[in-house]
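Lab channel / #folding
Pinned by the channel admin:
"Please post every new chain as: sequence first, then the structure tokens as a reply. Keep commentary short and put observations after the output so the thread stays searchable."

First post following the new format, from NK:
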Amino acid sequence: MTGPERAGEGDADRVGVLIADAFWDLDASQWIIGDPADARRIFPEYFTHVVAEVMAAGGVVEWTAQRDAVAVWVPTSAADPEPDPGRWDAVLDKVCGPYADRFRTFEALQRAHHPHGVDHHYLAMLAVHPDRQGRGVGSALIAAHHADLDRDGVGAYLEAAGPRQRRMYERAGYTDHGGPYYLPDGGPPLFPMWREPRAS
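Reply from TO:
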């Protein structure tokens, strides 16, 4: 596999579809939108908006030359101010309709468990097309970014979507960061994880 390529603003739609294709069957996705038809209609547009927001804020969206996997990284500074939720609330209402409050709950829990006071890169999403999952594509994609973080002495944070994903991230050097937390109403767990930079 060749090295990762940087996605541009014009790629946001395609990246959003790839993420949606990879995330349909995650327990957290099904907690947010239980109806498969609604999920297939809403998730591509939602993720397209998320990717566009990350790009506009200076985030790093990297994907494979084959366009079968993408990693969305958000450089996070200890000095970053809290975001203004007003405009994003309007996006959620428009794009997600009756599910907007579920998205808000999910995002609020993520923010509540996110580490503060330390510079790091947040792996907001790692998505691999269903036909390519289980072949090491995602691990190889993030390894290149980890090399950059190690060189600069910067840590990384993420939330694993389930036990299988957690094991994959453990192999990449992540450890549990405060234990799992659960989505409300009997929802599934998410596993916060942290990676210390490795000395070269």
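NK: The helical segments are 12-23, 27-32, 36-56, 85-96, 100-113, 137-152, 163-171.
TO: also worth noting, Residues 36-56 form the longest helix (21 residues).
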